[in-house]
Design brief:
By secondary structure, the protein is mainly alpha-helical. Among the domains are: 12-200, P-loop containing nucleotide triphosphate hydrolases (Rossmann fold, 3-Layer(aba) Sandwich), CATH 3.40.50; 206-255, no CATH class; 569-647, Serine Threonine Protein Phosphatase 5, Tetratricopeptide repeat (Alpha Horseshoe); 650-742; 865-937, Winged helix-like DNA-binding domain superfamily/Winged helix DNA-binding domain (Arc Repressor Mutant, subunit A, Orthogonal Bundle), CATH 1.10.10. Helix content is 66%, strand content 4%. The strands form two sheets. It has a five-stranded parallel sheet with strand order 2-3-4-1-5, sandwiched between helices. Strands 6-7 form a two-stranded antiparallel sheet. Helix 31 runs antiparallel to helix 32. The chain starts with 11 loop residues before the first helix and ends in a 7-residue tail after the last helix.
């Protein structure tokens, strides 16, 4: 395949890079970078055309600055047509997710989240790749919307062997280039990793510029004139064509090339040909962020006799474009360079004049700030403050945070309290955005500069909250306690301090929360609804951790107070907490539904930090529901998002670690968790230490290291108990593993103490899951002590109780334990039935270590029926083996580990009575051939 060399003037290296990308063995992705006007889009367009000629499926989107905030605008460009071709081949939920994201249908059921769109995008791209090679082509990627970037990056991280290539352009210098504030395109670079080649476009040489002028404009320059042109334009084809256009328009008097001394004078020359009114029109529409006809007309009122005719004249002169009620520069470079050429004083006067005609507080503040020399100014600081409030009120949190920070910077030193107040506002906004490091800096500045007034208390509370969020350690508590002292006689601030201490200090949560609510009761209707909500939710959390379950009255009071708040942060909403807590009372379906609704809200609001937490909650819910594939994806997404925004996703690692243990990926546990444990120990995060040890202990137990597991899990148990956490679900449900480790290690008295604790901590002791686990551990203790009759009674009861529990793994563990005791009583038929039922559960889960334990037990009993029915998971794996896929390919397709696939196959071999992949494939293919069609007589 070869790119059209005739059209790609002077770009031999670029032509070779495109040919390599689209040829066999291409690296997978090509990013074309360069300054504005250097020819990125030209190279990109020729690459996409070459791919289309070669029969590739080409999916394109071109980023637009005006659509950057429009979610899934890019995905619509990429998928809107192809979904009609192959959408019917996707699962219904995946097709629905894409059609909702692409606005092809209206939402009617559960809210849609970013993850569903990402997974559906991955499925669609895999389906397209099944038909042949696919090219994803993104022009001006710096302007492609964030939601599309997230979905594409998610898919590319997982498309490692499919025939897909990526071709993208991005501007790296000049107007519209990537900035630290808008650098989401780096997600694509990270997702592609070593598959990516980055090509920086270089200036064109003299012969190439000459060929370009002749082919595009029909003019030919001599050697000296061409050399001057290349020197003055630095080989930039856009500017070379601009000068060539001037030559074509005015000619070359005296055979002298009309090349200005610099590019800025080229623009000056072009503008000099315009009337002052037309020139001002270009400057006005370049300076305004939303240059409507009405605003442009108002700005020209004192300059032009007829502003509308002046706008028309500017359009006719080719310096502005007028469409859809907007007036824009004809080319972004034209307007930006025209502004840059203005002397500083003239530019400030322009911005101040425009600030006086705009009604929007945000735009007024930005223009007024541009009209200053950067020195602190009380008027500008007030305007920026008002602009931040206005932006926040309509949900533009990122813009509000930027304006609030700028307002603090512009506040004169004499107005210290105003500066601190603005820093606090900026900190709150940055926290909502998930920019915790910058929020922390603002809080530290606010506290350091606060006078000895109640505002110091507010700054201290904010810093304490952020520090706890960052590392979960104990250092935050000193700030919170100092803030309580700084509150003095201020009842409202006292209540806020107590609410924070309750929220962040498990051991004293009930005491502080009840004290906060008591103080708030004193304030009556004047009480801060935010503090009421926080105190109610914290008290509910304390009740939950003590085993009292969910108090609907507390949640109602929190929701009632929250309803009085204009825009409560998603993480602080009663409904979000309810979504978190439902799984802790075994309502996994309710938790899943509520979490998906919260994820949709988080995606819409763009709160990445909250999205990381929500994905973690999904992972925990799916772990207990036995949906390990979904749980692993959610845990890894929580970790990824957390790391991207500099928030340690510690709990995400612990949940992922427990999943790794339960699926037999002990290498993951050994590789990842010790480093996490060191981090939380350094941060003095007791909860983090306990949860990390719980996951490490699970790995040790299932890897056959029961003595080490008993010690590790014992330390985890004691650490979390010291925090007052009695509810098992708040301890990663470590009791199952801990009890088994203690019994295996011969520590029966300690195991009995664990059973007693599980039966005595509160109303939740009677919940089927907790009660069933306690019965199982007690039964195994009795079996270890030789009392098989009592063991059978306890395990029989445990099995019945677990029928009411939504946690399949615990039901399987109980059936396996029951089968083991029955075997010892020589009740082989009942033992085999129980163990086979357990094995079916473990295989459906992909719980490799438990599968192996059940298979070993069946061998001890005397084997199982070779005619046992395959589970759905086994059937899927068997079908894929019959189609010739390797274990690695099957694991990739089903989002599970290779170890899980091996366990499925081992179980399948036993049930079908074969010994190899070849025999299995032959059996499956024969079965499919012999099965009559649904329409056969």
């Amino acid at each position: 395949m070869s790119v059209d060399e005739a059209r790609l003037v002077g770009r031999r290296a670029e032509q070779l890079a495109l040919d390599a990308l689209l040829g066999a063995g291409g690296r997978g992705a090509l990013f074309i970078e360069g300054e504005a006007g250097i020819g990125k889009s030209t190279v990109w367009a020729l690459g996409t055309a070459a791919a289309a000629r070669a029969g590739w499926r080409v999916l394109t989107t071109r980023g637009s600055e005006t659509e950057t905030g429009l979610s899934f605008a890019g995905l619509t460009d990429l998928f809107d047509l192809v979904i009609d071709d192959v959408g019917q081949d996707l699962r219904p939920d995946q097709r629905d997710a894409l059609e909702l994201a692409l606005l092809r249908k209206s939402a009617s059921g559960a809210p849609l989240g970013q993850r569903e769109v990402s997974v559906a995008s991955l499925a669609l791209l895999r389906r397209l790749c099944a038909d042949g090679p696919v090219l994803l082509a993104l022009d001006d990627v710096q302007w492609v919307d964030n939601a599309t970037i997230d979905a594409v990056a998610f898919a590319l991280r997982r498309l490692e062997t499919e025939p897909i290539r990526v071709l993208a352009t991005r501007r790296i210098t000049g107007p519209g280039a990537l900035t630290p504030e808008h650098n989401r395109a780096d997600l694509l670079q990270t997702a592609l990793g070593e598959r990516l080649e980055i090509l920086r476009l270089q200036p064109l040489d003299g012969p190439s510029i000459g060929q370009l002028l002749e082919s595009r404009l029909g003019i030919s320059l001599g050697g000296r004139g061409l050399a001057q042109l290349v020197e003055r334009t630095r080989g930039n084809p856009f500017w070379a064509l601009e000068i060539g256009t001037a030559i074509a328009r005015h000619g070359m008097p005296d055979d002298r090339l009309p090349v200005p001394a610099s590019l800025s004078t080229l623009v000056t020359t072009r503008l000099a040909e315009l009337t002052p009114e037309v020139r001002e029109t270009l400057l006005v529409c370049s300076a305004l962020s939303a240059p409507t006809v009405a605003l442009t007309t108002a700005a020209l009122t004192d300059i032009a006799d007829n502003p509308i005719q002046t706008i028309d004249a500017a359009t006719a002169a080719g310096v502005v474009q007028h469409s859809g009620g907007r007036v824009r520069p004809a080319h972004p470079l034209l307007g930006s360079i025209a502004l840059d050429m203005l002397p500083p004083g003239a530019k400030r006067r322009l911005y101040r004049r425009l600030a006086g005609i705009v009604a929007d507080p945000e735009q007024h503040a930005r223009l007024l700030a541009l009209a200053t020399d950067g020195a602190p100014d009380a008027e500008v600081a007030r305007a920026l403050d008002a602009g931040a409030v206005a932006a926040r009120s309509r949900g533009a949190v990122s813009a509000a945070a930027q304006l609030a920070e700028q307002a603090a910077t512009m506040t004169p030193a004499a107005q210290a309290e105003d500066r601190v107040r603005r820093l606090i506002f900026a900190c709150e906004l940055l926290s909502v955005l998930g920019d915790v490091p910058t929020a922390r800096r603002c809080a530290e500045e606010a506290l350091a500069q606060s006078p000895a007034t109640p505002i110091r208390c507010r700054a201290g509370l904010l810093l304490a909250s952020i520090e706890c969020w960052i590392d979960g350690g104990r250092g935050w508590q000193a700030h919170a306690e100092q803030a309580l002292r700084d509150a003095g006689d201020n009842v409202e601030l006292q209540a806020q301090a107590h609410a924070l201490l309750a929220n962040r200090s498990p051991a004293g949560a009930s005491l502080h929360a009840e004290r906060a609510l008591s103080l708030l009761d004193q304030l009556g209707p004047e009480a801060d609804p935010r503090t009421i909500t926080e105190a109610c939710l914290t008290l509910q959390m304390a009740h939950l951790e003590m085993g009292a379950g969910i108090d609907d009255e507390l949640l109602r009071r929190a929701a009632y107070a929250e309803a009085r708040l204009p825009r409560p942060a998603l993480l602080n909403r009663a409904e979000t907490h309810r979504a978190f807590w439902l799984k802790h009372v075994d309502d996994l379906d309710g938790s899943r539904s509520a979490l998906q609704a919260a994820i949709e809200v988080a995606s819409v609001e763009g709160v990445e930090a909250v999205l990381s937490n929500l994905m973690l909650q999904v992972a925990l819910t799916e772990l207990w529901a036995g949906r390990y594939t979904e749980a692993i994806l959610a845990a890894e997404e929580a970790i990824r998002i957390g790391e991207e925004i500099d928030i340690p996703a510690g709990t995400g690692y612990y949940v992922r670690g427990q999943l790794a243990a339960y699926t037999g990926d002990f290498e993951w546990v050994r590789k990842e968790l010790p480093a996490r444990l060191a981090l939380v120990e350094d941060a003095k995060s007791d909860r983090g230490i306990g949860l990390c040890l719980a996951a490490i202990g699970a790995g040790e137990l299932l890897a056959g290291e029961a003595t080490a597991a008993a010690a590790t899990l014992g330390r985890a148990y004691e650490t979390l108990m010291a925090l007052g956490i009695r509810e098992p679900s708040r301890r990663l449900r470590l009791e199952s593993d801990y009890g088994q480790a203690l019994i295996t290690a011969g520590k029966l008295d300690e195991a009995a103490s664990l059973v007693a604790e599980l039966r005595s901590f509160g109303p939740r002791s009677a919940a089927p899951t907790t009660r069933g686990i306690a019965l199982r551990i007690d039964g195994l203790i009795s079996a270890a002590r030789g009392d098989l009759d009592r063991a059978m009674e306890l395990l029989d009861e445990a099995a019945r109780v677990h029928e009411e529990s939504p946690l399949p793994l615990e039901r399987g563990r109980t059936l396996l334990a029951f089968g083991q005791v029955l075997r010892r009583r020589r009740a082989k038929a009942r033992a085999g039935a129980n163990v086979r039922a357990a094995l079916d559960i473990f295989v459906d889960l992909g719980a490799t270590p438990f599968i192996e334990s059940a298979q070993e037990e069946l061998t001890s009993i005397g084997g199982g029926s070779s005619n046992a029915r395959l589970t759905a998971a086994e059937q899927r794996v068997a079908d894929l083996v019959a189609n010739g896929l390797t274990n690695q390919q099957i694991a990739t397709r089903l989002f599970v580990s290779v170890r899980t696939i091996e366990s499925h196959l081992a179980s399948t071999y036993r049930k079908i009575g074969v010994r190899s992949r070849i025999e299995l494939a032959r059996t499956m293919n024969r079965s499919q051939t012999e099965t009559p069609s649904p329409t056969a007589d």
